[in-house]
Amino acid sequence: MVSSTAIEGISNRKYITPRQLIPRSQANRYQRGTIVAENTGEYVIAGRKARRRDPSAETTTSRVSGLSGPRAFEHYLLAVQLVLRKQLRWLIETKKLPEELETLVRDLWALRLQRLRTRVSYDSDTETDTQSHFFSSQSEGEASASDESAHSRKHRGKKIDGTPNLLDTLALCYIGTLLLREPVLVADLHRWASDGELPYYHASNNVPLSMQERLPAVYQELLEPKLLGKPEKLHDHVLSLMRSFNTEFGMALPPINHPLILYRWMKALALPIEIFAATSRLARLMDITFAFALDAKPGAKNHMLQYPEPRLMAILIVSTKLLFPFDDIERAAYSGNAMDALGMDWSAWAELQVPHPTERKASSPLAYAKALEFSQTDVLGAAEHQLDQYMDWCEHNIASEDIRERGKAGRDADFRRILFGMFPVREAGATEHEDPSGSRSREEVETEKLRVVQAALRTRSVIQPPRKGQTPASGIGSSYRRIRTAGELEGPAEVFYERAAELAGLSFEAMVMAVFRIERRMQRLEEKARKGIRD
Fold it and tell me: Which molecular-function annotations from GO does this UniProt entry contain (predicted)?
């Protein structure tokens, strides 16, 4: 194409822009000025036309067939929907959740898409209308390019903020299990995704390459999420999506199945059965339920208690501190049959929390965050099974066996097939490495810990009427210590808080603050009860 600058020696020619010459629907074909010659009877010498062939055919194909606007957004939604289905199949086939989960989450996904009706095109739109909508920014009269660019960037940012992403898929999976009353926790989904078991990182690997190539870069980036972050982020996203369903569709969500969840936690923490009854009684006494606080203000001081799972864990910790305090003060039980008749050896409990070599599964996948932090120093000091885990992670997250048939990469397609055939990839996803000490399942480990803790329980003395001049024995609940900051914890108490925070899906500091707020609430109820007795 001839340059649009002035050329000396050529008369009776003028320069016009595509906006002045071609229809709006075809304006995208031209980007520079075009020379138009008038018929003056002069002999016109036409130059030769030369077509430059792109050496990479797939670049041309991608540029021609790539989507934009509403069509690209629809294509992206199909890709996210495919990832969501892969997540559901993993939950059903690996974690043995009911088949109804897929149908239920599919309906929830349809409700989620109801909010996006204004951002998708319809089949009744003609291609001309669609092109006119896509390229309307090129024919807005005399508006400047800078104004248009700033306006489009502003609205594009708003659209991306409301675009469904892979956090939405995790939240939808959780809401589906909640409606089915399954004892699945937010912390479970966070751990499975962080470990690379549940499809989340490199979700584009679950999308066909032909679908990925047609997506704009901004949507391809959404299929390659960065670090999942803390579990609180997923808690917030779940609660936000629930509020949206409740506001727009009037959906009422049930409370969590707290008896089953409480039973799970007691086994994981190796706690005596008395804690189950104490936690349930304390929750009823304080009038605390385990439903989601959809009406609470976002960002409040006690926002961590808006989530029912941390709320339940905070009450469990308070009940444990009441029945089995972490200090060394001798306390007496009120009767031989009461829940406080036994004492707990916290030193023995803390020793059980240190992982034993037989608990280590050499074939377990390496967590995504840990793999990214793996440095050269870690490589030098890593054991054989740790190197196997890291290489497996690289193989299934960085290396690719996709063979492109077109373009410059297509020239080496046959060589790549031969090379990949010589070094096949395992389907299981991890190197099978036998642990010489013999690995045990998590169920067996939890049962063994619980047996050891039960054997270490000791009986307390029963409170007797004090004799003359004798100091009365301290009862259960006396000398109760409230912890406000994480720095005040030490020994078995610190280990217990950390383990509880991990199970509840909170950070260590947030768990300490949640327990403190429950303790303050319990203190106010106690003061109110004492005041009522005096009156």
Answer: RNA polymerase I core promoter sequence-specific DNA binding; zinc ion binding
Read off the tokens for 158: 């708003």
**339 and 476 co-located in one domain:** yes
What's the rounded Cα separation, in Å, for the pair 17 and 494? 72
- Within its chain, how far is the Cα of 248 from the centroid? 24
* Domain with 482 in it: 258-356+443-534
Secondary element (H or E) of residue 519: helix 508-534
Q: Specify the pTM.
A: 0.73
Which pair of tokens denotes residue 319?
């009940």
DSSP code string of 322-357: HHS-SS----BBS-TTSGGGEE--HHHHHHHTSPPG
Q: Is residue 5 part of a domain?
A: no
Sign of the Cα torsion 271, 513, 176, 181 reads positive
What is the rounded CA–CA span in Å between residue 531 and residue 535? 6
Whether 60 and 54 have beta carbons less than 8 Å apart is answered as yes
Chain-centroid distance, C-alpha 249: 24
Q: At what angle do helices 166-179 and 100-114 cross, to 10 degrees?
A: 130
**Could you tell me where the DSSP H helices lie in 120-230?**
127-134, 145-161, 166-179, 186-194, 209-213, 217-222
34: which strand partners?
16
Beta-bridge partner residues of 16: 34
Whether residues 118 and 180 fall in one domain: yes
Asked if residues 320 and 271 have their Cβ atoms less than 8 Å apart, the reply is yes
Cα angle 129, 131, 135 (rounded to 5 degrees) comes to: 120
In this structure, the strands spanning 34-37 and 13-16 are antiparallel
Q: Any residues with CB less than 8 A from the CB of 107 and at least 6 apart, and which?
A: none
CB 495 within 8 A of CB 354: no
On whether the CB atoms of residues 269 and 496 are closer than 8 A, the answer is yes
Residue with tokens 């910790």: 317
Instruction: Give the total number of structural domains in the chain.
Output: 4
Domain annotation covers residue 488 = yes
Per-residue model confidence as pLDDT tens for the chain (535 residues): 444 444 344 444 333 343 443 444 444 444 444 444 444 444 444 455 555 554 444 443 334 446 777 888 888 899 999 999 999 999 999 999 999 999 999 999 999 988 887 666 544 343 334 333 333 333 333 333 344 444 444 444 444 457 889 999 999 999 999 999 999 999 999 999 988 889 998 888 888 888 888 888 888 888 888 878 889 999 999 999 999 999 999 999 999 999 999 999 999 999 988 899 999 999 999 999 999 988 877 666 667 888 999 999 999 999 999 888 888 777 766 666 667 677 788 888 988 887 655 555 444 567 777 777 778 788 788 888 778 878 877 776 666 555 555 555 555 667 666 766 766 665 544 444 444 344 567 778 888 888 888 888 877 777 665 555 555 556 666 778 888 999 999 999 999 999 999 999 999 999 999 999 999 998 898 888 877 766 5
* One domain for residues 115 and 219: yes
Q: Are residues 266 and 202 in the same domain?
A: no
In whole angstroms, how large is the CA radius of gyration of the chain? Answer: 32
